[in-house]
Fold each of these.
Amino acid sequence: MGNYEPLGLKPAMGWNSWNTFTWDIHEQLIREVADRFVSEGYKEAGYEYIVIDDCWSLKERDAGGNLVADPAKFPGGMKAVADYIHSKGLKFGMYSCVGTHTCAGYPGSFEHEFQDAARFAEWGIDFLKYDYCFKPRHISGELLYKRMSLALKNCGRDILFSACNWGEDGVYNWIRESGAHMYRSTGDIRDNWESVKSLALSQLGKQCYTGSFCHNDMDMLVVGMYGGSNSDFIGRIGGCSDTQYKTHFSLWSLMGSPLMIGCDIRKDNPITKQILQNPHLIAINQDLEARGAYRIKPEPQWFHTDDVFMLVKVLTDGDLAIGFFNLSDSQRELSLQFWDLGLPYAAGFSLSLFDCWAEQELGVFRERYAPVVAAHDCLVVRAKLVR
Ligand code: GAL
């Protein structure tokens, strides 16, 4: 096996065209994103997949029933796009749908699964996002994901399978068995705080359903969009504050979601880059054992609402990643008793805390730690047991 890393071992990292560009995608944009991955440190930070979402094809298949890339958007064809992305040492992703049509009304892969998988392999893709619109009602989504999974696993190329059924139809109960490497557990994200908050809260109780080879995908990141979508639905105006984007990235990192950038990284500012490329947060997200995070309510518990909590992720080397999240609208003190981590005072250990955003040591603490966290903000620490 040498250096071979199996597909889906860790949450995928990359960029997806949908949040910012929706239908307005073309070859030049994709090339520029690939260039930017290399020149601005995204590749170095671990981002790998460049994914073209919906709206890339013609509205009709050809006479042979094949999908056809829209020549106005991709004049050189998909193989050329793939070659370019590969020449940068990156990977290429595309999009289709379990139904007869994609959500935007382009041909879906229903009853064409094996044919389309062969075509994707010919083009040289490495990732397929597979949506859930226009699904015939007489057939289960579970079976349709199994179909495409089987088709991809037998198309002669390693293609990461990204299921996208928005958490519907009890997906948690069957998606791992289907062979998908990641699965969307939520409806579409929007570029505003309410959306980020509600998606995160909706998945707090679902952390037992994520892990290696089948990661819970909480949707693409809106970090750095600042209302820059061309779609009113996703959020053409408004956006979030940098603090909110930082909290969003921290939640997705700790909760083990794939990290798929959704902003126009050709126009990123230094703060966006700092957030998306934070090496400590990325290391937590990419930790080899890929454990879900557990939630602790701050003490005194009766005092706190459900949008104030700690998330703890057990890391491979014995450290703990701990996020203190205040999603409420006013400042809070979040008291963590180390007892709740499985570390009683009598064990004789203290925790040495490293602040992953400020990139500095906070000191050594015994028994408890109680930071004050501003509204919508968070503190993420890496905690090491020390005597
Ligand atoms: C939605 C999906 C989005 C995007 C869109 C394309 O169903 O959740 O992420 O892919 O379709 O039409």
Amino acid sequence: MKRSLTLLVLAAGISTGAHAQKFDGLAATPQMGWNSWNTFACNINEQLIRDTADAMVKLGLKDAGYQYVNIDDCWHGKRDERGVIQPDAERFPSGMKALADYVHSKGLKLGIYSDAGATTCGGRPGSRGHEYQDAITYAAWGVDYVKYDWCDSKGLNSVGAYTTMRDAIRSAGRPMLFSMCEWGDSKPWEWAAGVGHSWRTTGDIYPCWDCEFSHGSWSSLGVLRILDKQAGLRKYAGPGHWNDMDMLEVGMGMTEDEDRAHFAIWAMMASPLILGNDLRSMPEPTRRILSNKDVIAVSQDKLGVQAWRFMASGSLEYWAKPMADGEWALMVLNRGEHAVALNYDWKAHQISDDLSKREADFKKTTFNWIDVWSGKLGDTSKKLDAKIAPHSVLLLRLKARG
Ligand code: GLA
């Protein structure tokens, strides 16, 4: 009797997905794609999603590595009488399955958005109490990515709520990348490596260099403010579980130098690269920034180690990222308002990383470098002479001489 009871309990556990694991093999490198929120907020529809998928292919962004086309908040209609969530019939008249089929036909993947609470941040139906039903619905539509927000979460336990959705996704059976968006409130880096493929580390981003924009009870943060909140988090990130610094604001009103710096910082920090601009009307300089193959290689390096700041002096910060095959990336960030002339002696600065146990000793080894923005080449046997404009970065990729 006791044995059959145990079996029953075990069977129930399996069928509800208890002890489930997240899907492995997703986000082996930080996910790359686009999301509707930063530009369009609630003003979205199926045509926009189709056009964005088209643009992603046409502009070479798919070839550059961008893969996910993510619908953020406000796609929802109501739940039907059985509780099944329906898309907004006016904005998404063809339904989500048709949209997923279209996005897939372009060789891309579709992402969707929900919330752990009963309502989303935009006041639409959230997944609370419908987690398994929603995961099954998304899987049936052919969704590949679920961003899961944290509005209306009063009384919810974040570990429980996110683990429930992870289990729901697992038992729905379709590999869907699980992008956790609880803003770093409960330190997800400490507990979520087995739950999500990425977790937001902060509140929302704002397209400015170093400002905070108040919404009353909360504020969104500029690029440097978000960067500064990453202190101490690098050890928690790695293949399949990334610190998410929020979606990109490249092409959203900052200067070109700031856009380049923002993109480089996100790549160095191995944050997901989720575009937030309108791809249908993207100016060429923005397109060039977002498809820079060296910056993307830094982001997508398979070692999956986040950069760290190894030195700071005046307005400059020096960041290093160890990469696979003995490569390194080095970023010099000028946070300040004035250009700074650099005369950097490589040999005086050995770089040594406690986390990855990698080191670069420029006295012993000479590295060739390429400046990813200008294409300029050089090597570490000579001092590095450069002028770093305000609000900009110098980003170099280093390869040991063979
Ligand atoms: C929160 C999230 C944003 C976005 C909006 C949608 O603010 O952090 O990324 O998804 O909700 O309402």
Amino acid sequence: MRVLFVLVFSCLLATCFADDLDDYEINNNTFSEDFLFGTATSAYQVEGAWDEDGKGENIWDRLTHTTELIKDKSTGDIACDSYHKYKEDVALLKDLGVSHYRFSLSWSRILPTGFANKVNTAGVTYYKNLIKELKDNDIEPFVTIFHWDTPQPIHDAGGWTSEFVVDWFADYARVVFELFGEDVKYWLTFNEPKQTCHEGYGSAKKAPAISSPGVGEYLCTHNLLKAHARAWHIYDEEFRSTQNGKISIVIDTPWYEPATEDDEDAAERKRQFVFGWYANPIFNGDYPEIMKTRIAERSELEGFGESRLPAFTKDEIDYIKGTYDYLGLNSYSSYMVKTDPEPDIGSPSWDDDTGIYEYQLDDWIPAASDWVRVTPWGMRKLLAWVKKTYNNPAIIITENGFSDDGTYGDDATRILYYQTYLSNVLDAIIEDEVNVFGYTVWSLLDNMEWMVGYTEKFGLYQVDFSSKNRTRTAKPSVDYYKKVIQTRCLVDTCETDTKKR
Ligand code: GBH
């Protein structure tokens, strides 16, 4: 049974939707008792203490300290000061009632040079304390090993375009399994590798801001996939039998909807170039066919002797295939997709390789981030597509969330966002039988939002970045999320007989 839920929302950001009524059908079944509800952060975005207690420099420290690329010229030097305030963060998590907290380890805090020759005891103690605090409060740690913050010395030695990074990352992974593996049952090797590679080495939109379009991102991805697989195998062979955890990767994508019936191929091509680039080698084996043929053809037309997309050997394909125990999925919004019949040939780029145009519709409700609009239906379509394309993996949504610009008012749009997205997750579970076992709000706190600094705020809790204390204040959506976690229900009253599902 379904109910029609009507929400009236008032002021959002600078715009008022006072008279804007929208009807959303909200699923009124319940989530099962063992469904995981959590929140997420990442090290660089919340910890601060950038050079404290022996931490080494990473590429975000370097970029924020030496360039003018961050929108508000800010840094993560202090951020939310979670390095000192982790107990307060855990108290907030406890109050929310979450079952898990997804956070990341700062590679440079544990290994200040990036290499495993020197372990920083104080950094290790910080994470031991955080994990202990979580466990003492019955909160499961979901640990991301790498969330974009490459140690500067690793970058200087070639970074993700060097094949040696596979060894360097493997050494780091082994260190953290040894140190924390007894208490960590859910590992994630990489967060959103596409951002590290495409934006880090292709379009230069994120640290280390290298512009090598059409070449750098493919090389980076090639090494990163091998590094992921190596870490998975190390865990599988050396730690799984004693530590009994699960390990996977976080892959992100919006939902790509064809603009017309004729654009279905274009939409699928875009999904493969964004998500399949990483998911296909890990779940099905090798890069997607469409990427292999298209990039090879275009490389030839451009006068390259070989495809700009490196090829895996048969052994490498087999080594990478199957290196997952579940899937971490990040998704925020949707795009309409049209084919670009004549993408430029000449100056290589990943964008031209995809050969599509994409856009969002004006009547999709906007967030403060220009790439986020409220498109909950896209989440259901995405989950069904992932199930079909990657052999029905166990999925946890590792990020989903809504940004404000600091003026969230009654927070109605964020509440609407969680409610409608979760409703579509429930539809996917019940009606499409997608195996989703958890959902994670990005983010627990307003934080250092990479290139846009502190101007876009995804937190359930507002952080006062002008106060020394970095005071945290609950936004109204905290009460809604709390209630959902407690009752497993998205509306006022739910059907009760589905609890055991
Ligand atoms: C995630 O990235 C990150 O994991 C997290 O650290 C971050 O704080 C959070 O989401 C919120 O941003 O400029 O139109 O080409 C989100 C995925 C993909 C969003 C690339 C920005 C660029 C869009 N990101 N995207 S556009």
